Amino acid sequence: MKSIIIIGYMGAGKTTVGKALAKELGVMFYDLDWYIESRMRKTVKQIFDEIGEEGFRKIERNMLHEVAEFENVVVSCGGGTPCFFDNMDYMNQLGETIYLKASPETLHTHLKMGKGVRPLLLNKTPEEVEIFIREQLKLREPFYNKAKHIIDINVMDDFNKINGMVEQIRKMLNV
Ligand code: S3P
User: How far is the CA of 51 from the centre of ligand 1 (A)?
Assistant: First the structure.
């Protein structure tokens, strides 16, 4: 099996879906942010605070190369991973890339419910976050749209969302 790499904006559900998919397939799951945190022994927030976004992106690229070389794994990336360096082309070369596509409204709702600390959204009012998501998504979609497969998560009903996505991925990839 080629590695499966899940991409998409913050709040799309990359980690949740990746984890569930890996469990179904009986393969290892790696979340790139968690991998960075355990390798660097620092949280993503600490890395942003200490060396800024530019420094984080360099680490992220190196860690992506480590993780993407593993075989038979499911990897979920950070929201920005596909948008820096040649990361997107690199991921397409190595694995089956899947973009979890969601509207700004869905992303905002998910992000409000989530508890994780996201350095890019800190110190913003809900209105500012909404505008930020809309604007950043426009800039990022050209990268996300390079994925080999796209799943629109808005068209799924909430109840079976995660299982539905896992099933759809398995069918799409025949795994
Ligand atoms: C980022 C998304 C985060 C994390 C970092 C930057 C981004 O990952 O990598 O805070 O640029 O969108 P998640 O998408 O898993 O929240």
Answer: 16
